[in-house]
Amino acid sequence: MSAVHVIAADAEALAVAATLAAEFRVGASARDTERRLPRAELDRLSASGLLAVTVPAEHGGADVGSLTLAEIFRLLAAADASLAQIPQSHFAYVNVIRRQGTPQQQKFFFAELLAGRRFGNAQSEAGTKHVQDIRTRLTPQPDGSYVLTGVKHYSTGALFADWIPVLARAEGDQLHVAYVPRDAPGVTVVDDWDGMGQRTTASGTVRLADVPVPADRVLPHHLTFEGPQLHGAVAQLLHAAIDAGIAGGALAEAAEFVRTKSRPWFESGLESAAEDPLLIQRFGELALQVWSSEALLREAARAVDAARADLTDDTAAEASIAVAAAKVRAAQAAVEVAGALFEVAGTRSALNSLNLHRHWRDARTHTLHDPTRWKIQHIGRYVLNGTRPPRHGLL
Fold first, then answer.
1. Which one, of 179, 188, 124, 184, lies nearest residue 159 by Cα?
2. CATH no. for 10-114
């Protein structure tokens, strides 16, 4: 990896993200078609300093706000939704260190981040009762260390990671995060992801066979949920930003296609499809979906930042509800706008060789991460009865 830049402020982070998004957009369709994993692009992302922008200022980072972080993800996802998905868990597990890490752990890992190191993800498991039924185990050893055993699926980022944060149960069945080197003995990362969308995230399997873990690489994640928390709100905010980015990217590509490649319908009597008032009407409707998702995303990010400045049960609830609203709207916009691309662009847009369907495939795949119907339930309970949402980290 080349020398790693250290970003100093929010404005610089946004400028770097915009530059990288423009670069990544160029090869996004080909990477998807060929399922060519974005190793070089991720190295560019690491070297740019973007992966360290939430490192606290006292440790040398920019400590950017949630509004900036969400915009970074929106920009990247509008260019390449697979590439934007890979660091989503990275930032979620940076937050775990910020909240639960000891001063020594923070010093070590924040230095790793500033050096361009990447966190992956090994949290979800297949065949269990539900998403929070975690069966991977951290078994304590006489010397205070642990041995880690389990199998993880949907492990986005693990294949490209320097460190793999692993969600596991330890003593008393309490939830912990073990930060394990990608090349640690007993760690096997399998590139077996075959999703119809987000094809180049390499969200495959991680096998953990008696992996030795020093005590100072384990954090008590269960403590995160014993008081007001923003862990789930931040993680879901980034998912919402990815969906909003997919929607915006699909709309931009649809408009470019209609302007440059579509023929007018013969009954319109017009010379250009872009002059068709029926298409103009439809693009206006689609733009409202995209813009409303972006507006709710910004509002949610502001709510997260406000809660971080004064974290109470009430402010945490307000942030979670705002993020839930943003996620619901962005998910709807991503699927609907990406599907409408074909409606407005016409028959030629369905050619497999053009790969315009990648926007819909990415949207349909990414929006399955967690059901929006439950987010709407929590919004309704909060608005009608003042019921705060639960502290389970997925809202």
1. 188
2. 1.10.540.10
